[in-house]
Amino acid sequence: GAGFAPAGSDTLSRALNILGVGPCYDLKEVEKNRETVFWYNVAMKEGEDVCWDQVFKNYQSAVGFPSCLYYKEILDDYPEAKVILLSQDAASWYESASESIYALSQATWGPAKWIFYRKYARMADAVIWNGLFRGDFEDQDFAIRVFNEHTEQVKSEVKPNNLLIFSVSQGRKPLCRFLNVPEPAEPFPSDEHDTELQKRIETVRKVTWLFNVGVASVAVCLGGLIVYSAK
What we know:
Layout: H1 9-18, E1 24-25, H2 27-32, H3 36-44, H4 53-56, E2 61-62, H5 71-77, E3 83-86, H6 90-99, H7 101-106, H8 110-116, H9 118-132, H10 140-157, E4 163-166, H11 173-179, H12 195-230
Parallel strand pairs: 1-2, 3-4
Helix pairs in contact: 3-9, 6-10, 8-12
């Protein structure tokens, strides 16, 4: 999948797994496989001279960030790969991204960020927030312009026979025809908000707040002891 996450990408990932063209690689797999350093290095090299088999060898498909940003480089190594571009309204995508993956990036701060989430934050900043969006994601007009430019670039650069412009509201039929696979008995996954991600955002916020308060309390206590000892 060459479309930006998150709108529809989780549904597409689950659908591809159901259709037998999984496992599907996405941002969750990056964390599970501890591959943040790999993608940070990809960003530093701007996608050049990358051994894609290092992350894709056990997968048949990939959707969303970070792989969607390097679809051209990935196609160089897998020229027969089919590309699915999620058709989505730019304003709706921005709202969804703001409330999910961007909210997650902003949920951690202070000492907790650099102790618990350092590698993930460094990767996400290099690839997405400071890389793709140049530190200006909160400028909605700019972010939407980046989104639209990426969409048009995919349409113009991928061979028409290898490209499906797809909306999850269309269900499985277009996917099955495009991928040349039979329709499964299992129903198409629902296009619902990723509640798992929202729970994780709340968990990260709580952990961050508790840890940083704890660090601050220890610092105050130590400061008080030093002052008391100096008397």
